[in-house]
Known about the structure:
The chain has 281 residues and is of the alpha/beta class. 36% of the residues lie in helices and 19% in strands. A seven-stranded mixed sheet has the order 4-3-2-5-6-9-7. Strands 1-8 form a two-stranded antiparallel ribbon. Helix 3 links the parallel strand 2 and strand 3 (70-75). Helix 11 (245-254) crosses helix 12. The chain is elongated, with a radius of gyration of 20 Å. Residues 24-29, 53-57, 59-60, 74-77, 80, 100-102, 122, 124, 127 line the site of S-adenosylmethionine. S-adenosylmethionine binds at residues 24-29, 53-57, 59-60, 74-77, 80, 100-102, 122, 124, 127.
Amino acid sequence: MLVQDPSISPRGTSTEFMAKKPKLGQNFLVHPGAAVRIAEALGDLSQQTVVEVGPGRGAITHHLAARARRLVAVELDPDLAAELRGAFADRPSVEIVQHDILTLELSSLLLVPGEKLMIIGNLPYYITSDILLRLFDQAAILSRVVLMVQREVADRVAANPGSRDYGLLSTTAQLYARVEKLFTLPPDAFTPPPDVYSTVFRMSMQPRFAELGVEADQFIPLLRQCFAQKRKTLANNLKAVGYDHETILKALADSNIDPQARAEALPLETLAHLHRSLQTQ
Ligand code: SAM
């Protein structure tokens, strides 16, 4: 189930910056100590298959290679992939795959039935949203995910109801995982430096669909409708997608939601209740 969150912007927002953004989101981590902290955030890797998204010049890769039972590093840039193959030639536990992470079926990397993958990466920020959506889509085969993203994106992923940042991205991520923000790095932790701060966060995958009594392919589209226009009330957002007034009022009352409420005030449990109520009206 894919969701689009137009509020996720690529690294940097000004037209001027967009014109000179580094190729393939290549801002390499150079901060002493940060790479090992990121690798350690996945926990004990001695029995794990770890997939690194965008290893680049290998800043995090070296720490993962020393810890993981098996490491698959997926790099789109053929020159960087070739350099990494050379650097890890003497490590049979490390595979360098030159591929677009957005079109790679993660299930094709599983060797043992029932095995789950851990995912890690200092993401190429220009496709953060697409990568997150691909990961949610393949959540069933993931156990833990540690990602570095633009700080504002991490704030949205981890936001609680009632906060300015709470929206479609928060609810979607928190449907699939327990989310923890870990630490933030300044632009000069990278070369070339981006024009934004970066935050590392961890997702422990624990899909909540069964507990909330909802199906991903029906509930996530409803969430998209609820958060379509954040300044509108929930009732008006639902009206805009074709629900009639009577049905909306009944479902809101049944779910104990104030008719003037906005979706950003409501926890997932209440939104799930609303979804079930709308289905039975
Ligand atoms: N991990 C390195 C580090 O921390 O220094 C590099 C991080 S850099 C922000 C993002 C990396 O993702 C780059 O090496 C870039 O070439 C790679 N990349 C960009 N688009 C990609 C894609 N679609 N699939 C896989 N890798 C990609």
